[in-house]
Specification:
Length: 198
């Protein structure tokens, strides 16, 4: 049986390449992960117009990402593997794989690929956490002004940046407690599916 498409009309000869590109673009859509932006960068003098593609790949490091350009097709793949050495108390971020494909028109040239902003922020957070003692990581409530200054100095950040990290952590703890209380209430009312691990 012959496949009939919009571009297979007898008067539209020579459009096979466009049809193939449309098919590739449709296959590259996937499940919508990771989300992305495409933005137009204004011209700077005689320079040609630029497009910037930004993908939200939180949790991936540079070595877990692969970017290829082949046959007018830009493909970004991410692959994470479970770290068997980590002992998770709660795990809400799954290790996953993705592949995002962009079909490029004639004349579009890929200039560079960069992961600096996300990686830099992650390294700063990691530095702050690593500068804490085991007891400080376990009970951040003991962090007085003197300890906070020591951690900030040891990790190369300001005390304000450390305070922001600690506030986010505190908010996450409060949210997890509320979820636990909500789960217990739902169980009493007839049993809802478990949201938190025991």
């Amino acid at each position: 049986m012959t496949r009939v498409t919009a571009l297979s009309h007898p008067l539209l000869l020579g459009f096979e390449e466009i049809e193939r590109l449309i098919g590739r673009a449709a296959k590259g859509g996937g499940d919508g992960y990771p989300p992305y932006n495409i933005e137009r960068i204004p011209r700077d003098g005689d320079a040609s117009e630029l497009l910037r593609i930004t993908l939200a790949v939180a949790g991936f490091t540079r070595d877990q990402l692969d970017i290829t350009l082949e046959d007018k097709q830009l493909t970004v793949r991410g692959k994470q593997q479970d770290d068997k050495e980590r002992d998770y108390l709660y795990r809400g971020i799954a290790s996953r794989q993705f592949s995002r494909t962009f079909v490029l028109a004639d004349g579009i040239e890929v200039k560079s690929a960069d992961l600096t902003k996300q990686e830099k922020e992650f390294r700063r957070m990691e530095g702050m956490i690593c500068a804490m003692t085991f007891q400080e990581r376990r009970t951040p409530q003991i962090l007085n002004a003197r300890r906070r200054q020591r951690i900030a100095k040891g990790s190369g950040v300001t005390v304000a940046e450390l305070n922001t990290l600690l506030n986010r952590f505190s908010q996450m703890q409060q949210m997890m407690k509320k979820m636990g209380k909500f789960q217990k209430m739902m169980m009493k009312m007839g049993g809802a599916p478990r949201m938190l691990p025991r």
